[in-house]
Amino acid sequence: GESVGLHLPTLSVQEGDNSIINCAYSNSASDYFIWYKQESGKGPQFIIDIRSNMDKRQGQRVTVLLNKTVKHLSLQIAATQPGDSAVYFCAENWPGTASKLTFGTGTRLQVTL
Amino acid sequence: DSGVTQTPKHLITATGQRVTLRCSPRSGDLSVYWYQQSLDQGLQFLIQYYNGEERAKGNILERFSAQQFPDLHSELNLSSLELGDSALYFCASSLPAFRSSGANVLTFGAGSRLTVL
After folding, report:
1. Residues 6 or more apart whose Cβ sits within 8 Å of residue A70
2. Which of A10, A96, B67, B88 could lock onto B37 through a cystine, CB 3.0 to 4.6 A?
């Protein structure tokens, strides 16, 4: 399940610094949004989600901000660690009984020591 | 281990051939989703099944087909393979949102890497 080789924008961050990964979504009717992390050799892994009626949600070392006015989502990682190195995808859920997730392009986070 | 099992992990085949990818969903999940991840397209939704029935279709080619069996495992069949079909194919499962109180969080398997030569 490697994502190595994907042609993605890359964010380089020094260990201990905060990381901010941005995402633009397309559907103003999306009812919730999810951030996934994909490490080398693995499938995407759930990090955090946020409903469209919220502006901010915090998890352990992560915060997601939602700006519906400009259809923008961000993931903030506090005190970035080498283990945070991965590709990060935002996904939006299009509502309906057959709801499905639509994924963004992804951002590669590289943590330097 | 996410609980979603995909086989095979790697597959190398020739153009024109047909392959089958298999997925066992996480215990208790009723929906299965297939995604394709290629170099220039990111994660593309292919198809979704819920409890054996097709529920949503994405950008799935006519050469591709899928099904979900009574035991809830799913197979993705790729035929008349072309070089451009080389990609990672992910299966994900979920308990659909209308069956739960929260977001429809998909749990992904580790993927099947298909190489068409």
Report:
1. none
2. B88
